[in-house]
């Protein structure tokens, strides 16, 4: 009975999410849920149980800390990543007891619980997978004989792995003359993955060099069980080819020994049934009625176990799909040419196509089916080194996922792949393994502000649920920061220095994810990825930069597309202005007929004219049909001198850029912006009923004032702030040429939603805002300093042979005394392939020499923090009465012009000078953590620059305390008082007179304190938290009491740790990986300022209604 209940529960939950996301949510309800999002909008986290180090108490503490911070669920992994082994063996009775406890605790705390389907992270294997159910590959052996003769001997058995081999066929044929072989065989025969395989064309193939179908003799039935063959060999030279299959030998990894075994056959339902019975059913039994209710999801991580190209039923599956028997073509898998190069290549195309279909149906598809039968959702990262179609396999999941990595752009293409999959298949949730980090980019150095820009970028690729990488389970309570997932990942969880403040950041993510899960994605371009296999989705950030977004779809989705009002519309509800075909001359007749249907109905198609079918099915008649259809549709187009023509109600283009076709069609860019030369703005557009919602994110660590133009008309823009939940009307906007331009002031890495509503009466928006004759929307600029790049080196810095001098390139990029550049191969090529490189820059600012080193993928901005701090003379905002008002921070003559031509001049005669609070701070550090408990800071400096080593190496939270005087005339009607902390490394929590004002984790570190200060003396407390980096480095100054491998691995838990004794070395931290060495550079830390109390005056301009 409980099985029926859990099936109903999980599917009710899924349908609720789908309907919630697709329903026409009222603006009022949307606002309410934006401020207080539902649980479905919360981020989740990966939860790694590392090398059997698991405790019941640690499980409870982990899950309570995650729930308190606002995490919505966990995805459990069991891994071996080089950490010393603990006592808990995977799938032992003790392990199951802990698993059951974890699921029960998740239920108590309202967390969803997902499990990776096997130990390790790739892909589906274990000790229960028998060789006959493992991934299989074709293997061959051959001998040459000369007839006439009687052959009676054992044939050599092909390569055999895992002690398992089975024959497929024994074929004999006249030995071809010469060395003609299939080029790139390993990829073409699916021994390894390669996208966009190009068949050989025009290869001369003398008749004596190929195997004629009519000459092949099937000797399979003559083979004896012991491998002996009896055969009367005809006259001539003959080759006897023994073809069989054996396991690939791949196992699941990185798994603890007791959970490691062969990978299951991805093309066999019978094999997956056996895997499920051993790997998943025990988990379901263990948690009973919590399955489908709490334990509600199974994950297949990114596919990293290579190709397979056979399964026991492959021959019949091939015949069913392709309409012919593959038996006589099997010599092609050994590299021979059968009949002709053309025929052999077409067979290989069908062969790969069948493999991809079986992966989609019998692995990803059947896995999803088994999950749903058991009341579970199915999540997957549908990409990797397997021979499948990424989009199709992702389409089988309930939650397709991508991944993205800290410090690099790698992975964003997988996020776009996952988003496209969700959009074209109608999946409401798009997940991402979020903030994965290499050993160079993780190592306890990450914090919310550091992660913000790349997270926002992932949102703009279409992700709407982050699953953090990672929370390593913390089994202990007597050491910090304790367990790591080996050297990998950003570190999320209760032992992080900043975890008590993490909720402020997680609330930001949750609000973003809530809005990004609503409505329908808006895009102009649909890429058809083609019929070949394997394949993936194109990644075109160049088109996004030009203001056009896109999706990609596979054949099965394209075949269900329709045309409405000139747009290609998918069953999921998404629609597109143009359909872009693959850059290929091959297309099957059935797909080409669909293309004809779409363009006839009014679609605009972009792509080359097909000339042939890629398949051997119905060859050569299939080519004749393709040519006839293509001539009908493309006519005389050649992609050069003739590039477009009308057909039916639609249009066909060949040789024209996508953006040019869109422009010719009258489709303006969906988003454009104008700002400084350094500006980089990411964006995404969704539509919820009559609301158009754009997420806009500054990708630079500097203030940017930008004019953003949105393809929306007749609506009023609002700014929805996901960091606070505040909603305000935009004050500066205008409509022109059916688009609306909104002026935005974006903080460093700042972001918000621009929501266009048709149910709001527009204000008389401001179009010009000046103070003393200069643009008041721009921050005051400090005098430009002279920046000179003295020397810049990119590569492996300690190896001159793997470095390149990029001094001239960087100097040429300097603008107005500032340099912003990403450390990447784009500067001057790749001096050290397959290695994470560094960029070292020796430079001078007004003659003062400095040096900075950044890792590959990171953005370098020098002088550092040039535009992080900005002083604006005034703000414009709509107040609680619906009035546009000026808040002046500086005196002067303000001139304001509205879009209706009205002008207003406001003379602000005086504004109090900001009160500087940069000296005489009392700073309190926690006891027994190296630093003095109370210390006086005469001036604000980084902890890393303090002469006291305990402060210099401090990691954690310290409290700054200071009193200040507020004159009586600062208070009263029309006054605004703001606390500006300046630069904070990295998180600040503020109290004024005992009242908590909240947490800031991203600049500007400003708090409006008008309501919380009083005339006379006031008390200010600022709790500041940094990362673990400085304390980890400081501990390296002390004797080591652990033994380490050269790569940072801990050899064994030290005796003092095992016995629970005090550390003999005096070190304060303990972690399971050595990330730093003695003398490593320290990070800036603490409250750096300048700290100021700023007073402004309010001046209403006009009434909204």
Automatic annotation (TrEMBL):
Domain Glycosyl hydrolases family 2 sugar binding: 948-1036
Pfam family, one: Glyco_hydro_106
A GO BP entry: carbohydrate metabolic process
Segments forming domain DnaJ-like protein C11 C-terminal: 798-863
GO terms assigned for molecular function: hydrolase activity, hydrolyzing O-glycosyl compounds
Keyword Chaperone: yes
Gene3D superfamilies noted in UniProt: Galactose-binding domain-like
Signal peptide residues on this chain, from the entry's feature table: 1-23
Family as reported in the entry's similarity comment: Belongs to the glycosyl hydrolase 2 family.
Name of the featured protein: Glycosyl hydrolases family 2 sugar binding domain-containing protein
The species this protein was found in: Candidatus Fervidibacter japonicus
